[in-house]
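**Folding the chain**
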Amino acid sequence: MNILLTGVTGYIGRRLLPLLVADGHKVYCCTRDKDRFEIEPSLRANIEVVEIDFLKKELPSNFPKKIDVAYYLIHSMSSSKDYAALEEKAAHNFVALLDKCAVERVVYLSGIVNDDKLSKHLKSRKRVEEILLAGPFNTIVFRAGIIIGSGSASFEIIRDLVEKLPFMVAPKWLNTRSQPIAISNVLTYLKKSIHLPFMEDRVFDIGGPDVLTYKEMLLHFAKVRRLKRSIVTVPVMTPKLSSYWLYFVTSTSYPLASALVESMKVEVVCKNHDIRMFIKQDLLTYDEALRRAFEKINHHEIVSSWKDAFASGQLNFKISDFITVPRYGCFRDVRSARVESVDTSASKIWHIGGKTGWYAANALWKMRGFLDKLVGGVGLRRGRTHEDKIDVGDAIDFWRVLYADKEETRLLLFAEMKLPGEAWLEFKIVNGRLVQTATFRPRGILGRLYWYAVLPFHGIVFSKMLKSIASR
């Protein structure tokens, strides 16, 4: 079959892609920026990359003329306060573009919207449903609640709360019920939806076997991790205070935290289980889903993370616009040192950030991350998805990977922290010397003042970092 896959660089899309290829389908991968889409060698023969922005009505020349199934996995919740308007516009454009080619079925992953009073986030999901269901094609909608898997936003937020806080004074919305589902079960539903034996539009709720409050989910997580945790819920936390609480304690962005807090007041429990008649599978319990997620983490098998989506940062750019580091009108800090071992130094570069840290003055890096969070930035919350693997487009703390070639021994990062300008950090080994370059393009007087204010810290941080990476 010809499959159109949107959201291919997102958490769900990246995991669904190899499953579709393994089933022998030709997959057209839609992405706004083809430069940040790393293609596994084993998949290249069966996919074609289509660079397209569904917020625009421009149809690229290599857009397929015939599509058997299109997966709509586009969400904007964590990228903008106006995400509802963006999601509605993208859905309308998607339908209009598909109207120009032959499409048999569209599959959409939505949220459970069974409550009478919905949050802005869930109203947006429902609005997208309505737009797709009105399209000139068969539409299958899967409504899910909390998705549990290594790297999922829900899993990472729960993990942050439980592992960081032995005692929690939490908002009363922790008593709201939800029906979590394992990522493997979600992917099975999506993959097998291709073969559902009917042509009328259908909407299915999907969830695991457990219905739990958010408080119970946190305590179950603690039990699986063999941690003793206590939680007290209080009714006095306002939505804004709750959002800040979630933002500072967990790895989530503030826009996402705000949207989640509003949605967590709404019960997300399946009202129908009709899909189980058509697609049979063993549904993992919440505890089983947690254990499987940690097995993946322990074996370094995290396929995708919500943090690697551009929406998890503050900027929305194309990598091709920033891959060439400017010099005119920029401040540069260039340092070099002879490396004692090229292999050792290359390995250090490829392990930088996350749990490893930055090889020098980690306390200052953490302080910079904290200050960034205070002004609404990403801070160091994202860490890194893989311990020893770097792909273009990955997030590493408050940096985004623009270029990564281990054989060439070159890594180029772009800053996604809040700055009065733009910043790049580059590492490369040339003729046995490590060259480390920090570039800053200031925005106005404030940008210049910022550079001179942090210059003394550069002398400490960058010099020590260079020596540490260059040594054995």
Q: What stands out?
A: The chain has 13 helices and 19 strands. The first strand starts at residue 2 and ends at 5. Residues 310-315 have pLDDT under 50 and may be disordered.
